[in-house]
Amino acid sequence: MKKTSLMAAMAAVVGGAVLASATAHAQTTPTEAWQPPQGEMDPAKRVPQASQPAADATLQSHTGSQPYYADSAAPASHEQGRGGFFLGAQAGKGWVYDDIDQSALMVNAGYRWQAGPVTLVGIEVAGGRVDDTVEDGWRYGKVEVFSVGANARFNFGSGNPVYGLVRSGYWVTGDNEIGDRLDGGYVGAGLGVDFNRNFNMSLVYTTHVYFENLEWTNDGVYYDASRADTLMLGAEVRF
After folding, report:
1. Which residues contact 48 (CB under 8 A, 6 or more apart)?
2. For the chain, which domains are there?
């Protein structure tokens, strides 16, 4: 029974192949064009030639394809033209003193230039503060900070709304309750999401490095390096 079925299947396959070959041969065999009798005007010359648009419409109806126009402009990539001014606001936590949580706020503004299909680089100025707090009966004072620096962001692939962010620059304290005026450098990194061309949100961790107790001695320079950290969730609008 299995042998009979196998032979029938083979016969069907062979028959289909022969039929396909015959059809292909019939399609490729040239046909002799009809010639009008000697001395009689070619009927094709008595019939007005169809207009080109009609021929295009007939071809389109048979092929089911749309006509192609070589001079049609390609749509502009949505990745282009994303540079411009930006304004942001952030809120989160700051750590000026070891293991002491303080509320932190910051606003920043700047301009970014497009440096590639998914990359933006720019400059920024920022101002913020770490609010005072009380921990175990001890009061820790408020610190205001102003900064200027550079930032860059890059999306993880064309059309991907998720992006990475890095920032660095110089900062200085303003009104503060921790003693002398301080200054130093900062560096930060974070992740964000573009909701559309003009709005995004990000989570950024920034370290502020500074030197205190800086002294010149006969043995060289003595200093005590310290740092203050912030972790902030922010929103940004772009113009």
Report:
1. none
2. 84-238 (2.40.160.20)
Do 101 and 133 contact (CB within 8 A), yes or no? yes
pTM of the model: 0.63
Angstrom distance (rounded) from CA 176 to CA 132:
10
Q: Which residues does residue 185 pair with via DSSP β-bridges, in sequence order?
A: 170, 209
Core vs surface per residue 163-192: b (16+ CB within 10 A) or e: bebebbbebebeebebeeebebebebebeb
CA dist., res. 130 & res. 180, Å (int): 16
pLDDT > 70? residue 195: yes
Comparing CA positions, the residue from 85, 173, 90 lying closest to residue 123 is 85
What mean pLDDT, rounded, does the chain reach?
77
For residue 135, pLDDT beyond 90: no
Nearest alpha-carbon partner for 128 in 160, 158, 105: 105
Distance from C-alpha of 226 to C-alpha of 123, rounded to nearest angstrom: 26
Span 105-116, pLDDT tens digits: 999 999 999 999
